[in-house]
Amino acid sequence: MAGILLHQRQRTFESAADDEGDFLLAVQHQRAAQAFRQQIGRETESIAAVVRHHLRLRRDDGCVVLPPDSWIQGGFNLCVLVDVRSRSPSTPRRVVFRCPMPHKLAEQHHPGTIDEKVSCEAAAYAWMQDYCADIRIPHLYAFGFADGSQVCVSAFSVGPAPPVPDTVG
Question: pTM of the prediction?
Fold first, then answer.
């Protein structure tokens, strides 16, 4: 019997019936994630521009969004990898541009959930960078909201950032 490829496994309706998970919801999420990945893939120039801006790169510095097959998809975020080439020794060589996946946060049914997630995560990162420098976490350079507004974390940071500069988003 024909099936569907779900999470890298061929699934049939018989195998779905034996599984306690919500098969139809999993299929919907997989399709939504694929559509979101394609949408983000059309925005690579914008992503590179945002990274360049927040890292304060010079014109001769390079900033390249890596191909979609190198991106990392977790449970709630799509992480776009960006290579940076700069003469400045303090500039990271690779950053991660995290994009919350709207379908996993029910943004369509509960508008504002993405902004709430980003706000809470950014606050936790900023607090840890300021007060828990001995705990290694990725450095948060900036974050943005659905309305297009962006915040540069260094603008309100009160302490030194840990020496692990590898996250934008």
Answer: 0.76
